[in-house]
Amino acid sequence: MVLPGRMQCTAISARNIAMKNVLILSGSPRKGGNSDILCDQFAQGAVEAGNRVEKIRIQEKNIGFCLGCEQCQANGGRCVQKDDMAEILAKMIDADVIVLASPVYFYTIDAQMKTVIDRTVPRYTEISGKQFYLIIAAADTSLPHMERTIESFRGFLSCLNNAEERGIVYGVGAWKKGDVKALSCMAEAFEFGRNV
After folding, report:
1. Interstrand relation of 21-26 and 164-172 (parallel, antiparallel or unpaired)
2. Is 28 inside any structural domain?
3. Which of 33, 110, 152, 173 could lock onto 28 through a cystine, CB 3.0 to 4.6 A?
4. What strands lie across the sheet with 97-103, from one edge to the other?
5. In a domain, 2, yes or no
């Protein structure tokens, strides 16, 4: 059984001719961790297809937690915090394709990714008409268990205007750093990138 959004290489028949602006947000706290490796595979495919690609490792950015102060709603969408999130949010708004990637922690996304999602509040209505790909990596091999994590992403997408979920890379069965390299999801990530 193939879950909705599960990659099937044979279902992809044509590439878009126009170059797209692809933004990859890697939530992995480990550089070269399993979800981070899958981001690189996606990026490689997208670059080879002639797209403009930028990968941001969230762990390497200074991003504070949302304060819930609602000041952004009163001052034209500007957050009171002066950190790296304003630049990331602007890139999300400018992107055609956004990849959200996270390791699975207790069957949800990690704190790094959740912090970015929460901090989109000042301008989230401007993240409109984007295509989204989701990447997760987990030691567990049960795809039904992974749906709990995917729903964390889908909760965010459901708040955006005309967000289109294009596919999911399930990096399951990957516990130790680098385990994902031996799995078929490496090729799936590359093919998704190549066919954005």
Report:
1. unpaired
2. yes
3. 33
4. 52-57, 21-26, 97-103, 131-138, 164-172
5. no
